[in-house]
Specification:
The complex is a heterodimer of chains A (520) and B (112). Chain A is built from 21 helices and 2 strands. Chain A is mostly helical and 520 residues long. In chain A, helix 5 (128-146) packs antiparallel against helix 6, helix 10 (239-262) packs antiparallel against helix 13 (324-352) and helix 13 (324-352) packs antiparallel against helix 14 (371-386). Chain A is globular, with a radius of gyration of 23 Å. In chain A, 59% of the residues are buried. With 112 residues, chain B is mainly α. Chain B has one domain (2-50, 66-100): Helix Hairpins. In chain B, 65% of the residues lie in helices and 0% in strands. Chain B is built from 3 helices and no strands. The longest helix of chain B has 32 residues, at 69-100. The chains are: A mainly alpha (520), B mainly alpha (112). Chain A binds chain B through residues 129, 133, 136, 140, 143, 147, 150, 152, 155-156, 158-160, 162-163, 166-167, 169-171, 173-174, 177-178, 180-181, 186, 509, 511, 514-515, 518, and chain B through 20, 25, 28, 32, 35-36, 38-40, 42-43, 45-47, 57, 59, 63, 68, 70-71, 74, 77-78, 81-82, 84-85, 88-89, 92-93, 95-96, 99-100, 105-107.
């Protein structure tokens, strides 16, 4: 049986419910429970990777309602990789938040686990309407986490974010139901089969539905012109929340990658290669404007938001080429940038706490009380984010550039990535000099306002940095894996065969065939 | 019937979008509600418009005499989620009004 596929959905859900029942005064129990569950999720994530390593795709029909009639959860190499990434980020962020950030408001662990539940569910589901439901779960948790611990800035950003995503949800429904109207199915594997069989008379409506869906995913993945919400939202959120949000945009990337390879891949007949012509140029523009935004930011949090946009642009441009090598490079870069940006947000909070009234402003302020510890972590983050050797940011960009070299858009890819890397380097060096290097001495009166970073607070930061270093050192085996992920993605028949198994028992009424043809 | 439903959805979407683009929270929330109604009606229409038909397949009865139950189930899910989201944004808007002193979305006005 493949019941274990639902563990990443059930485990956070049960933990969240348990945390909701424990009173806020017993936060130590909540923390232990939440951390233990997150650790178990890390183990599950890597178990999934080990299971899917061979290339097998596992599918579990919920309630034994076989596909395409019931909802299936599916784990292939991509899903396993994304779940593992989510679990690692979640564990590190939770370890950090348990040092005090979770006491600034009620129900932190409850909301956090629900957020993880929504993200993992979105990665695992094989049903497009179920994807909508998991999107709503992760969004509702993120709305609450964003305004977590209150404050005017957060409320304002929260209202914007909620309105934007409610419009997005309505568009998602319109896109999904359009696809249901012409294919008669919601199961993604079955939809791939049905779309390939559509005639040219359905082309216009199929494309309309698919592109509406892509707009929604692009909103989640902060693709130009739908990225304007991101810096404001990410800079308003508390540090652990913003760090977890680094995974949130990857759900959009995942949804684009999944639907555009499985349902609208090259074999999809009239639905083939719908978004490729838009994705590549838009992603490069996103990268460009993201880096320009990072250059022009006055606050560290804003800058990190723009760096996330730039990294999303980079990976989506590479995905937009739709070759095995380019997707593999993008996936390698995706893991790197998620970890790196999560670390950056946590670091900024530690830095702001030592700069008194200057908080995260990028100008000369108080000298840091712990310049060595924070400065070294920043150095690692900045080198990785700017894409300098030896860190994985450099390797990821190298892989993507190599993959683009013979492609039609290769010139633009090289030009934009190399130019924006220079911009990123300038922006990060400015931070390095103004925030970390220069500064006025902290006298006794100021020293009371400085919050020192304890060893326990620094541990998750150092851990993420160590993971990044290991990720760079073991780039060989990792890229072999991402190559296999990309190869599996570009052969959607494997996914379809794994999901569309014949039910063990099904009364032979012939009605399922009638139903199937009801619209044709 | 199709034309009527289609134009009703179109009007709802148009009004919804107009209101969403307003600068104050209340019209925006009403706009979001209209927009989600439009989406729900749209889902309903994807299962073909039938009236008085059973959602149960029977042997020998043509498929035209059958109402697709799936879109109806989808609408139920969408309504529940939409209802919860509307309630949430209402609470958020009210606490925003209390805290920021204005119902302007960008909080650009002087407080009362």
């Amino acid at each position: 049986m493949n019941n274990w596929i639902v563990i990443p959905i059930l485990l956070p859900m049960l933990t969240a419910l348990a945390c909701a029942l424990i009173p806020a005064s017993k936060i130590a129990i909540q923390r232990t429970l939440s951390l233990a569950a997150s650790l178990a999720l890390v183990a599950t994530g890597f178990f999934m990777i080990s299971q899917t390593m061979s290339g097998e795709i596992f599918s579990y029909a919920m309630g034994s309602w076989s596909a395409p009639f019931g909802i299936v959860v599916v784990v292939d190499r991509l899903s396993a990789m994304m779940v593992a990434l989510t679990s690692v980020v979640a564990f590190c962020v939770l370890a950090y938040a348990s040092q005090g950030a979770d006491k600034r408001g009620p129900y932190f662990h409850f909301l956090f686990q629900f957020q993880v539940l929504g993200i993992c569910g979105a990665f695992l589901t094989g049903d497009i309407f179920n994807l909508f439901v998991f999107f709503e779960i992760l969004l509702l948790a993120s709305y609450n986490l964003l305004v977590y611990s209150g404050g005017k800035k957060r409320l304002k950003a929260g209202i914007h974010y909620v309105i934007l995503n409610l419009v997005g949800s309505a568009l998602f429904l319109i896109g999904v139901s359009t696809l249901y109207g012409i294919t008669g199915t919601l199961n993604m594997a079955d939809m791939a089969v049905q779309v390939a069989a559509l005639g040219p008379e359905d082309q216009a409506i199929l494309q309309a539905g698919a592109l509406v869906l892509m707009v929604v995913f692009a909103l989640k993945a902060a693709l130009l012109p739908l990225y304007l919400w991101l810096p404001g939202v990410y800079s308003a959120a508390t540090a652990p929340v913003a760090a977890l949000f680094a995974v949130l945009t990857k759900v959009g990337v995942y949804a684009i990658l999944r639907t555009s390879t499985l349902i609208f891949g090259p074999e999809a007949g009239v639905g083939a290669d719908l978004i490729a012509p838009y994705l590549f140029p838009l992603a490069l523009l996103t990268l460009f404007f993201g880096m320009v935004g990072a250059m022009g930011s006055h606050r560290l949090r804003h800058m990190t938001g723009y760096l996330i946009i730039a990294s999303l642009g980079t990976m989506l441009a590479s995905i937009g080429l739709f070759t095995e090598a380019s997707i593999s490079g993008a996936l390698y870069y995706l893991v790197h940038s998620t970890l790196n940006m999560a670390l950056f947000f946590l670091l900024i909070e530690r830095v702001s706490a030592q700069r008194g009234p200057f908080t995260d402003e990028i100008r000369i302020g108080w000298k840091l009380t712990q310049p060595t510890l924070l400065g070294l972590i920043f150095f690692g983050v900045a080198v990785a984010a700017a894409g300098l050797p030896p860190f994985s940011g450099f390797l990821g960009k190298l892989l993507m550039l190599q993959a683009a070299i013979d492609e039609p858009g290769g010139f633009w890819m090289w030009a934009v990535i190399l130019f924006t890397s220079l911009l990123g380097l300038i922006a990060l060096s400015r931070v390095g000099t103004q925030v970390f290097w220069k500064g006025t001495e902290v006298n006794d009166a100021r020293a009371e306002k400085v919050e020192r970073t304890t060893a326990l607070q620094a541990a998750p930061l150092v851990a993420i940095l160590a993971i990044l270093a290991a990720y760079s050192a073991f780039a060989g085996p990792v890229t072999e894996y991402t190559d296999e992920v990309a190869a599996q993605l570009l052969d959607p028949q494997q996914y379809i065969d794994a999901v569309m198994v014949e039910p063990a028992f099904f009364p032979d009424t012939g009605m399922s065939d009638d139903l199937r043809n009801k619209d044709h | 019937m199709e034309a009527l439903i289609a134009s009703a959805i179109a009007v709802l979407v148009a009004c919804g979008f107009y209101l969403v683009l307003r600068a104050r929270t209340f019209p925006v929330i009403v706009g979001l509600a209209l927009f989600s109604y439009a989406a729900n009606l749209y889902i309903f229409s994807t299962g073909r418009l039938t009236s008085g038909m059973p959602p149960v397949l029977q042997k020998g009865v043509p498929l035209e005499a059958y109402a697709d139950p799936l879109p109806q189930a989808l609408i139920l899910t969408a309504i529940v989620i939409g209802f919860a989201m509307t309630a949430f944004i209402l609470v958020l808007a009210i606490s925003g009004y209390v805290e920021l002193g204005t119902d302007h979305l960008d909080a650009k006005e002087q407080s009362r």
